[in-house]
Structure formats: C-alpha cells, structure tokens
Fold this sequence. Notes:
This protein is of the alpha+beta class. It has two domains: 6-124 and 264-282, Probable inorganic polyphosphate/atp-NAD kinase, domain 1 (Rossmann fold), CATH 3.40.50; 126-260, Sandwich (Tumour Suppressor Smad4). The protein contains six helices and 19 strands. The protein has helices at 19-31, 54-60, 70-80, 108-114, 187-190, 275-282; strands at residues 6-11, 35-39, 51-52, 63-68, 87-91, 118-123, 126-132, 135-142, 145-150, 157-163, 166-173, 175-179, 202-208, 218-221, 226-230, 238-242, 246-249, 255-260, 265-270. The strands form four sheets. The protein has a six-stranded antiparallel β-sheet, with no helix packed on it. A six-stranded antiparallel β-sheet has the order 14-13-12-9-16-17, with no helix packed on it. A five-stranded parallel β-sheet has the order 3-2-1-4-5, sandwiched between helices. A hairpin with a 2-residue loop joins strand 10 and strand 11. The protein is elongated.
Amino acid sequence: MAKFNKVGLIAKNSDLSVSETLNDVYMLVQNLGLEVLLDSSTRGLLGGPVTVDMDVIGNECDLAIVIGGDGTLLRAARELVNTNVPLVGVNRGRLGFLVDVSPDGKLHELVEIINGKYIEEHRLMLSCELLRGGEVIHRSLAFNDMVMRTKNVIQIIEFEIAINGSFVLSQRADGIIVATPSGSTAYSLSSGGPIVNPNLNALVVQPICPHTLSSRPLVVTAESEISLLVTEKKPVYAQMVCDGQIYNDLQNDDVIEVRKHNRSIRILHPSNYDYHYILREKLNWG
Length: 286
C-alpha cells in the first residue's frame, strides 16, 4: 500500500532527453492510485497535463520525484527544503551521486519507495549571504557548496577567512569552496578536498589553487559561521556561486557569510542503498 498520497514530478528543465522516463514515472504513479502534480520544468515534455509552480508542489505534495541528474535535484532541494517534502531522484544525468533510482526496467526501486520501503537521510544545506557596506544584498541556499572564485580572468584573488569571528588566515588563491558533506564529492573533491560522510555534521573549507604550499583544507563543525572578506586592492573580477547555478558578482570589501541552514532536506534512497558502494562505482575504485 502506498505511503504517499500526492506526488510532485520535477524534471531537468524542458529537456526532451528525459521525456520518456518522465512519462514512465507519470504513468507508474497514476497506476498506483496517487495524485500527481507536474512542476513547470516538465512543461512540453508530456503534452497535455497542466503544470504548476514549485511552491504548489511544496505546499500540497508529500513526495517529490526528481527525474534528471544531480543538478536537477540541487535546484529542487533549494526550493523545497523549507517544506519538509522528501525527494527521490531518478537518474537521467551523468554521475548521479544523489539521484540513485535506476530508470531501467519497471522502476521497481521507485515502487518500493512509494510503498514505504526506503532509507531516509537528512542532508544539511548552506545558508549564504553576500554583504556590501554592511548590508545584505543577496541571500541564497546551497545543497553542495558555495564557491568564491575569480571570473573570466586568469588571476588570483586576495581574501581573509574567519570562523566564528576568529581570524584564521589571509590567502591568495583562485578562490575558495565551502562545501557540505554532500558537496565534498563535487567541486571540493576535484580541488583536492576530503570525502566527508553525509551523516557527519561538518563543513569543508577548501582553497582553490592557493598561492602557497602550506595551504590545506579545513574540516569544521557545521555549527560554524564562516566569513570571507575580499581584501584585494585591485579591481575585483570574482563571483559568489551557489551549487554552480546561482551567480553573484563581487566587489572589493564584500563579505560572504556561510552557515548551516536551519532546515535539512530529506532524501529517500532505495532500501539497498550503500554510500560506499556509490563511491566505488562513481569514482571507479577497485
């Protein structure tokens, strides 16, 4: 018997490559007797059904199924984290650390999840603020990471790092990453950062190509407040980037403050989910 009553379907934005899987999931959920709402990202992929905005799914659904890659799930997580609606991902992307339901066969893993047979995780997220002249000019959430990086030029940027108001260091680098445990297998990993188990209450502070041989990543408690001050004296060509999807240009003396968001996102996995198996498969370990 289904554990859920109303399901929202979210897809990679108007991407025809996911339409077949989206249709399979749509028909499956309907055949299980559940009510279905289609997010506006599915517009044009199924033909007739009416679509709704994401906030309607957050207010009315008790499960959201994401069809696409990890990037699609990142967007859904940012928009739904404050609603307590759990997410399950059907993989139509490339790597797929987060969207781990296979679209092959009869979607039996998805059927099991809908019927209440799953592993639930609560993944922490970041709350990021950009301050200019002491005033907050932009707020954003991030599931994987917040990146401060140079923009469109090959040059380093100078900045200071403080944690809980305590000065840590001044650094010259291509940028810096503040990553959640989920994001530790994304940009941070390719920059030489550690893999952090998603159940740990921790954050990774990972410099990007630092101009010193002694710089190392930091792993800090997720209760930390991390502040980044742009101290570069020359005109700054840099950005604050959240999840590789939300971009904001920086100016000299801007401050970025990053902390754990006060709500976590619920992720549902198949009952046979094994984090270390995912690492072996995705990273080609022996």
